[in-house]
Amino acid sequence: MAQIFHPSTNVLAQVSLVAVVVLPLGLLVGGSAISRSPWNTKVNVPKDQPAPFSHQHHTVELGIDCRYCHNSVEKSPYSNVPSTAACYTCHSQIWTNSPLLEPVRNSIASGAPLRWNQLHTVPDFVYFNHSIHVNRGLNCNICHGPIQKEMITYKGRPFFMAWCLNCHRSPEEFVGKREDVFSVYKKNQFEQPVIDEESKNSESELERAKATHLTDEQAARLEGKEYTRTEAELDEGKKLLSKYKVKKQQLTDCSVCHR
Ligand code: HEC
Ligand code: HEC
Ligand code: HEC
Ligand code: HEC
Ligand code: HEC
User: Fold this and answer.
1) pLDDT averaged over consecutive 10-residue blocks of the chain (259 residues)?
2) What residue's CA is closest to ligand 5, atom 32?
């Protein structure tokens, strides 16, 4: 039988097959690498802010409670950043001549609020609720990274859907006691090391934290690190889930986050 296609079309077919199958795959992999890169997700990338606010100074060194400034975080679906008035209760008295505080003074004088650029966001089509998470004893650092020790605030996590779902699938790995959410920062600041002089003076905050009465889990979370719970801790987590009446099966329903 006569050949309908010249043998060279075979090569052409192979090349176009490669183009059709491999190229889009490459684009997909490359594209998702880009969409997951810090350049796109802005994780660990600082944003310009109207004043150089340091969490390290204010929360670790001065020990101000998160709720002094983020006072809606445990009561409302939305957290908030503080008004200039919250800064001025102190900065009308202390560090009053600091050039770094000029924007705060200007804001008070002019009445124009400081416009902080929000770092952590989910898209508009996603529903999120702060108070319910905080009331299930989820530590701020699980979602925001080691924010309390940052001199400039960074975004600690990319809020991919898979990341939300990872916890919604097995919340017993994360839930904790409600009262520990904020007390852990006080503990980190005030509790005296038990014995170990070496750990106390260590460079690493994790080592220092371990030298206090913080649990291994708390110490790891404070650093924004992953932590795998022990069997006993998981049992505790499961008990808390039933105490909180969390309906685990429904937590992964699309309608929980897409309403
Ligand atoms: C409870 C009191 C208090 C509150 C509230 C407070 N600060 Fe401070 N702030 C201080 C103290 C004390 C220092 C000095 C800390 C140090 O140098 O260790 C300071 C230091 C600073 C500095 C560094 C000044 C310099 O010259 O080094 C800046 C900037 C600053 N605060 C901004 C703010 C902003 C913005 C707010 C509001 C969001 C705020 N502070 C709220 C007590 C406070
Ligand atoms: C003295 C006031 C003050 C205290 C206390 C404070 N913060 Fe903040 N926080 C701010 C200000 C001002 C901003 C916005 C500027 C910035 O991003 O640095 C902010 C930003 C944040 C953000 C990022 C918000 C965004 O844009 O996505 C998180 C998360 C956060 N704080 C968590 C905490 C936690 C956790 C604590 C307690 C350990 C805490 N803060 C204590 C003033 C405060
Ligand atoms: C389960 C994860 C999770 C936990 C736990 C969590 N947050 Fe958030 N936080 C988020 C998400 C998601 C956003 C973005 C919400 C949005 O886009 O509306 C956010 C946003 C914020 C903002 C920005 C608000 C603004 O208007 O600029 C602040 C401040 C904040 N969180 C503080 C805290 C503090 C303080 C705690 C601990 C008491 C905490 N968060 C615990 C997930 C979390
Ligand atoms: C570390 C664990 C954890 C992470 C991360 C987490 N969640 Fe949750 N979330 C929970 C738990 C636990 C509950 C269950 C609360 C209950 O039913 O008592 C919950 C409940 C919810 C609810 C239900 C609120 C309501 O009113 O019924 C929404 C919405 C939600 N989460 C959205 C999100 C989104 C969006 C993200 C990611 C940006 C996220 N969550 C990340 C643990 C987490
Ligand atoms: C725990 C919260 C949560 C649940 C449950 C959830 N999503 Fe999402 N979803 C998110 C978040 C956060 C984003 C935005 C971040 C991202 O794109 O990864 C998102 C994004 C999406 C997007 C847009 C993707 C994109 O690339 O733009 C689609 C489509 C989607 N979700 C579908 C679903 C479906 C279908 C289900 C049920 C099987 C579901 N989601 C369940 C949190 C959730």
Assistant:
1) 56 51 49 58 79 92 92 90 92 88 93 92 95 96 94 89 97 95 85 53 60 81 93 96 96 96
2) 254
Q: Ligand 1 centre and the CA of 237: distance in Å?
A: 37
Q: Buried b / exposed e across 137-161, counting CB within 10 Å, b at 16+?
A: bbbbbbbbbbbbbbeebbbbebbee
Q: Which residues line ligand 1 (CB under 6 A)?
A: 51-53, 57-58, 61-62, 64, 69, 82, 86-87, 89-91, 94-95, 98, 100-101, 104
One domain for residues 87 and 135: no
The pLDDT assigned to 193 comes to 45
For ligand 3, the distance from its centroid to the CA atom of residue 121, given in whole angstroms, is: 8
User: Nearest 5°: CA angle at 249, between 243 and 255?
Assistant: 110
Please, which residues bridge with residue 155 across strands?
43
Q: pLDDT tens digits, residue range 127-181?
A: 999 999 999 999 999 999 999 999 989 888 889 999 999 999 999 999 999 999 9
Asked whether residue 6 is domain-assigned, the answer is no
CA of 132 to the centre of ligand 3 (A): 11
155: helix, coil or strand? strand
Domain span including residue 201: 55-81+120-257
Using CA positions, which residue lies closest to atom 19 of ligand 5?
A: 161
